[in-house]
Amino acid sequence: MYLNPETSNSVKILVVGHFGVGKTTLISSISEIEPLQTEEEITEASEGFDDLSGTPNKTTTTVAMDFGRLTLSDTLVLYLFGTPGQERFKEMWEALSRGALGALVLVDPTRLHDSFPVLDLVERFGLTYTIGVNHFEGTTEYPLDEVREALNLAEDTPIVHCDVRDQTSSAQSLITLVQHLMSILG
Ligand SMILES: Nc1nc2c(ncn2[C@@H]2O[C@H](COP(=O)(O)OP(=O)(O)OP(=O)(O)O)[C@@H](O)[C@H]2O)c(=O)[nH]1
Ligand SMILES: [Mg+2]
Fold it and tell me: What's the fold here for domain 9-185?
């Protein structure tokens, strides 16, 4: 699908989160263009480092970035960049965050401790963010205000449920982020 020539505002957004939380899935479920993916088979090198217990069917991991596009209105298009989740690819963040206006931070409420290093990075790169809580079925569902408290979020940081496999839910999370950015940037 070609970009509407009338679309005047383009915004770069990062989709971040710990290993296996669903960044690549979100971008592929939402992108209106064929998403660019850089998936590689998970190797033994990740054994003992990356927790696959919640996603036993996951066989690949992002090694550089994901890329997709989502037109939100006649005048606004989002360019979505997904970061790799594995610790060893952390240096990709520097390049990917350049020019980004904000970030959607995906979290799995059963693995919140894995989200703290991600939040550190988001804050270090000065990105305004919104939290998308991706509940995996079969795991405990925590109320959003409990997740907010556990993550020690600032009062005005939005937090929403987000099923990364669902286009509408994923779009809603990004819309929440954009509204938050607009309220901050004026
Ligand atoms: N059952 C279930 N599976 C889910 C859910 N959300 C995501 N998944 C699956 O979990 C896996 C997430 O994998 P990715 O999208 O590759 O995650 P990622 O964050 O890009 O992973 P890395 O790039 O390796 O950090 C996929 O197999 C999804 O289909 C969910 O709510 N329920
Ligand atoms: Mg990925």
Answer: Rossmann fold (3.40.50)
Are the CB atoms for 180 and 128 separated by under 8 Å? yes
CA of 186 to the centre of ligand 2 (A): 32
User: Would you list the domain boundaries of the chain?
Assistant: 9-185
The best mutation among 14, 18, 23, 25 to test binding of ligand 1, ranked by most ligand atoms within 8 Å of the C-beta, falls on 25
Phi, psi of 177 (to 5 degrees): -60, -45
User: How crowded is residue 79: how many other Cβ atoms within 10 Å of its Cβ?
Assistant: 15
Mean pLDDT by runs of 10 across the 186 residues of the chain is 78 97 98 97 74 86 96 94 91 93 97 96 96 93 96 97 97 98 90
For 88, phi and psi rounded to 5 degrees?
-70, -10
